[in-house]
Amino acid sequence: MNRRTYALAALVLALLATVTACEKTYPAGPTGKVTDRSSAYFKSGGWKFWLTVDGTKFRVSRADYRGCVRGSAYPTCTHR
After folding, report:
1. Terminal Cα-to-Cα distance of the chain (whole angstroms)
2. Element (H, E) at 6
3. pLDDT value at residue 22
4. Hey, which bits of 11-65 come out as E strands?
5. The pTM is what?
6. DSSP category for residue 77
7. Helix, strand or coil for residue 67?
8. C-alpha radius of gyration, the chain, whole number
């Protein structure tokens, strides 16, 4: 019974590590003021999010998109 418990615990930890590592990271955009936000749904890849900072549009994660509204300072708005 003890070996089963350890094996189950190892499996749960492996699954937890896999799930938490799923958040994609993208290269940081330029520092400045967020002037626009956009998102789109693609059947092949799901939701994709973009921010525009001082005329430069770049892709961000869902968490960064949710944290940054128009007029906020990037990348300060990504830290909660």
Report:
1. 43
2. helix 2-20
3. 58
4. 32-42, 46-53, 56-60
5. 0.67
6. G
7. helix
8. 18
Cα–Cα dist 13/11, whole Å: 5
State how far the Cα of 37 lies from the Cα of 8, in Å rounded to an integer: 43
Q: pLDDT by residue (tens digit) across 10-40?
A: 776 666 555 555 567 899 899 999 999 999 9
Closest CA to 56 of 26, 28, 24: 28
pLDDT at 32: 95
Tens digits of residue pLDDT in 42-78 = 998 899 999 999 999 999 999 999 999 999 999 999 8
Kindly state the DSSP code that residue 12 receives in the 8-state scheme: H
Do residues 60 and 74 touch, judged by C-beta distance below 8 A?
no
Task: Return d(Cα 7, Cα 70) in angstroms, integer.
Answer: 48
3-state secondary structure of 73: strand
Per-residue DSSP letter, 55:
T
